[in-house]
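Annex B.
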Amino acid sequence: MRSSLIIAATLILSLVLAVMPVSAMLELYRPMWLALVLAYWVLVLPHRIGLLTAWISGLACDVLYGQLLGQHALALTLVATMVLLLQNRLRRGPLWQQALILLPVLGISQLVLLWLNSLSGSRPPSLLFMLPVPVSALLWPWVYSILAALRKRYHVH
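Rod shape-determining protein MreD: predicted structure tokens.
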């Protein structure tokens, strides 16, 4: 039970970081917190955290952003699917290599969001929308290390 609370708390914290107000300039570089935290849990606990968690987290993100219901759910489900498919490569490599593997995974997720936003007419297409991808990939080693320490300390299995 406690381990489920730790996982839920990290996902909720990542949602809070995703919607926390920042300046317009920093907004362009805002990391994909929820995707990073979800990728970590899917990678280390695929038997507990998977597509359903990704879908529910994405719906929560859609509600918080007030955007088209299901677009973040689709993008995060794609992230979880790709992490599950690349799980063996991700687990074997060092953190910098994991970040390089996650770069296209996060990029595809952002491209799907860009495409859905352009279809709904809520945001004109722009490549500035892709800036969070390299920022998130650069943060992966720290996110992984922090969550691994938290997992070890609270015996999350």
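The radius of gyration is 15 Å. The chain is about 75% helix and 0% strand. Further annotation is deferred to the next reporting cycle.
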